[in-house]
Amino acid sequence: PTNLNHLLFGLLGSEEAWHFRKEYIESWWRPNKTRGYLFLDVAPTGDDLLPWSSSSPPYRVSDNITQLIEETKHVAPTMARMVHGIMEVFREDHEGVRWVVMGDDDSIFFVDNMVDVLARYDHTKYYYLGGQSEFIMSNHWYSFNQAFGGAGFILSYPLAKAMSKYIESCLRRYPFLRSADQITMVCISDVGVILTPLKGSHQIDLRGDISGLLSSHPKAPLMSLHHLDATDSIFPSIERRQSVRHLMKAANLDQSRMLQQVICYNRPSNWSFSISWGYSVHIYENILPRSHLQLPIETFQPWGVTPKDPPYYMLNTRWRTNDSCEAPHVFFMKNVEKTKRYEILTTYSRSSPRELLSCSYSGNHSADYISKIEVYSPRRKRIEVPRGENLGFKRSLSFVDFAKELRSSRVESRVLGGDPVRGGRGSEEAWHHRKPYIESWWRPNVTIGHLLLDVPPQGEDLLPWSLNSPPYRVSDDVPRLMNETNHVDPRVLRMVHGIMEVVREAHEGVRWVVMGDDDSIFFVDNMVDILAQYDHTKYYYFGGHSEFIMANYFFSFHQAFGGAGIILSYPLARAFANNVISCLKRYAFFRSADRTTMSCTADIGVNLSPLMGSHQSIEKTPQNKILTKYIRAWPRGIGVCLYPGSYPAEYVNEIHVYSPATKRLQINRCECCDVIHKAGSFKAAVRYRECKLDEIIA
């Protein structure tokens, strides 16, 4: 299994900055255990650096690449040095290495979590892992498809080897790029690899007080933090660099729970508790839904120049408020220790008085007198599941004591097949012209599911009902449900309630419930292959974001958009169905079915696991190939390219693409292809093949 010795770290920094940044790295570096090097621009000087501390990584001085810079007229020499560092760290030490981790001299890594996450991936394949920026404009200026280096990006050994071989030729290809992370991304793209995002990697392209973000961390292992010297101290009463060491006290005892948000309630007092383990606890004098508490409070500001109007962030937030029923009492971690009962005790103290009246709505149960909170957790690694832990709760006069037993499902590593049941949501009026969309992929007597219509079908084009369509059902009595829930939107209510109706019809042996619209087009073979990678006995909520960023902002960055399909594991779908009426009552004011579905699943303790789209081929050839034919849509209508060696393609009007008839293995690298074309011929042929190990595709 993967362990810390399989990770090689390359940290890029400057001698000038290292004088005051070294404490960030020393807070997590483990001498004689962590492998890697710090690459400085010049040799260190000064009594505070020499002799070199054994608590710091060993240093190297970066290669002199002045000749390369002059030959290419590179516009950003410092950025070129940082990219070149990938080759330098690999050259220094790579025996037994599985993963190369690159970071900055102020990157804070949580190495135990890093090892656990990387153990899930095949280190013999090409992988490029990392995190995006929280600030939308940073992704827009550079790329939504790059890893931001301060948060750390991770290369599998084969990819790092290929990169080290071709890094100088890549720097020659892109002398006009001004960002080291963008150069790295395009170099990796030239090898045929795209980014695999990691939720727990944090660039922290934010300013000011980031406690709101750290108090509502997504359900993913914390991998990294960055830019903490550009924000307020993460613990208000502790100096900035010392605050990092304070955070690492908890991390050194249990990284698996670091910043993991757990939400629980004390019903007698109408209090909601939000715990960010190892960092903070919030008490709210009201029962607030999980989906609300999971939104970070916007205590922070954007990193740089912002547009006139939001969105500013790659996440939804909630504003600070003086409403005593929604403003939290805030407590920060004061101490962490092991107990004699094989537990970890984290103690949190109030940061400052809230200075608001108590919440009258919830019965005037003030929490002003609470000065300390104690949280007990098992002294064992938290097994990551897509659902939060449950907490027992009891209250005393001076502190809150959490029950000793935390219940958490065990995840088994096994590949399972999937038999999904599908539920389509539509209207009778629309079905007259939309049914060809569904019939294009529906497989009669093979696909399991139903179409839920608002009223019974009518018309000669629908009756008798086509065997090529899914069997239909008429949705439950909406007016009755409207009266029962006081919902503002009958269409939203019908669509969300439809999940229960589909589960009610579900056949024995169903593992996954797939909800879509009456114009959703699903590629079911790919869907089965993807779902087979997950344990259907656990709680999972899958789906995709909108391509339109404002849609994610208006509704949520954390919801699945139903037209693209929402997938629930059967246990989650059943739990959802059991609670759907109470949930519709709770969110009777929502006008989006997808947002309501997200909120209902969040209240069960489950967050979205995003899925990237996939594609499916169409026709076999006698040579055990799949042939897809493409014809010109219209003349391009512009002149030919005048670059030396370029030839016009105006006369090509048909392209034949041959790909293997065998299923493509799900690896994180694209396939390569060869083009066969005779000069003057109106037809070109393209043959797919596996890329060679170190092949540059560009």
From TrEMBL:
<dbReference type="GO" id="GO:0008375">
    <property type="term" value="F:acetylglucosaminyltransferase activity"/>
</dbReference>
<dbReference type="InterPro" id="IPR006740">
    <property type="entry name" value="DUF604"/>
</dbReference>
<protein>
    <submittedName>
        <fullName>Fringe</fullName>
    </submittedName>
</protein>
<dbReference type="Pfam" id="PF04646">
    <property type="entry name" value="DUF604"/>
</dbReference>
